[in-house]
Amino acid sequence: MLDQADAPKRAVYAGEFILEVDNVRKEFPGVVALDDVQLKLRPGTVHALMGENGAGKSTLMKIIAGVYTPDRGEVRFAGKALDIRTPLDALNSGIAMIHQELNLMNTMTVAENIWISREPKFGFGLIDHGAMARMTRELFTDLGIRLDPADMVGDLTVAQKQMVEIARAVSYKSDVLIMDEPTSAITETEVEHLFRIIRDLRAKGVGIVYITHKMSELFEIADELTVFRDGKYIGTVDAKDVTRDEIIKMMVGREITDMFPKIDCPIGDTILEVRDLTLPGVFRDVSFTLRRGEILGVAGLVGSGRSNVAEAIFGVTPAASGTILIDGDAVEIKSPPVAMRH
Fold first, then answer.
1. Could you give the 3-state DSSP secondary structure of residue 169?
2. Distances (CA, A) of 188 to 200, 201, 220
3. Which of 157, 241, 270, 273 has the most C-beta neighbours closer than 10 Å?
4. Which class for 223: exposed (0-12), middle (13-18), buried (19 or more C-beta within 10 A)?
5. pTM score, two decimals?
6. pLDDT tens by residue, 308-340
7. Half-sphere exposure (CA, 13 Å, Cβ side) for 216?
8. What does the alpha-carbon distance between residue 202 and residue 198 come to, in Å, rounded to a whole number?
9. How many CB atoms lie within 10 A of CB 256?
């Protein structure tokens, strides 16, 4: 097992709830982000927090994680009121959060990112990099993550960085783990891997708050769910006792008979054309046309080159060969400013 003397210890708690939020309110200039909301998390469960964008989900999680302070209300952990002023306060209390926005240092290694401010040291204060690498490998073995502790984070894919974030949060051995849209940038295979990690943590008694907009994930992983709407608490239900349509009604406040109504738009002339675009070793012979009023989807697995093609068109990493035409005229895009002028 990992040698984590400084990690918070799992709380010994026999109560019904490990985390309780009561009547929490948070205002920003001109906006009431949270209006006396509540949330109750049982140990060893996954509690999904649902709501449209702007419902207040992430705001509440940032209050629990010490990023924001509430204007009023109470957060209790293992039955005791918490005064969380900083993220470090939350971590020391046994609460860790995986943010939707990745918070990693690209110029540091994987191991350095995971153990930052908690590095094992020799007796005279120097960092023991060998021990840190060993601790990271042991953590990755527990989580089934295949990464080298010595890899630079800046060289990783977004999906790999997400796994490093997850590993760092788990390394604190927290009693409560908050996951804010953790699957937004990973493949289905990686989602399955994440769910295995979640189930293992749940079996160990960790309480997990899981924010997602994906209904399929909700029914696969959640035990309970709470819905917010416009900064207000709407209700809490068992995941097994509610349907997809009922959740949507709670989220939007009305019946939705057609989730994605088709809107017919006139399709105009070709505005962008790409011919045989090639970047050796990354993508080759990519061709397509885009017309006014049209949405063109580009699909593929992580690493297939989708983002690279977009970056080439935008001039971030220009293609080695091929032609880009705008309104029928060939253009040479060597940088983003040139692309923006076009």
1. helix
2. 19, 20, 13
3. 273
4. middle
5. 0.74
6. 999 999 999 999 999 999 999 999 999 999 999
7. 4
8. 6
9. 12
Asked whether 91 and 42 are in contact (CB, 8 A), the reply is no
Report CA-CA distances (Å) from 110 to 125, 153, 181, 197, 238. Answer: 21, 6, 21, 19, 38
Cα 14 from Cα 23, distance rounded (Å): 24
Q: How far apart are CA 339 and CA 330, in angstroms?
A: 12
Pick left, alpha or beta for residue 253 (phi over 0 → left; psi -120 to 50 → alpha; otherwise beta). left
| 3-state secondary structure at position 156 | coil
Residue pLDDT, tens place only, 143-166:
999 999 999 999 998 888 888 988
Q: Which single residue is written with the structure tokens 């989580």?
A: 143
Encode burial over 62-84: b for 16+ CB neighbours within 10 A, e otherwise.
Answer: bbbbbbbebeebebbbbeeebeb
Q: Tell me the two tokens of residue 186.
A: 């990973």
The label of the residue with tokens 């926005």 reads 101
Orientation of helix 129-143 relative to helix 158-171, angle to 10° = 100
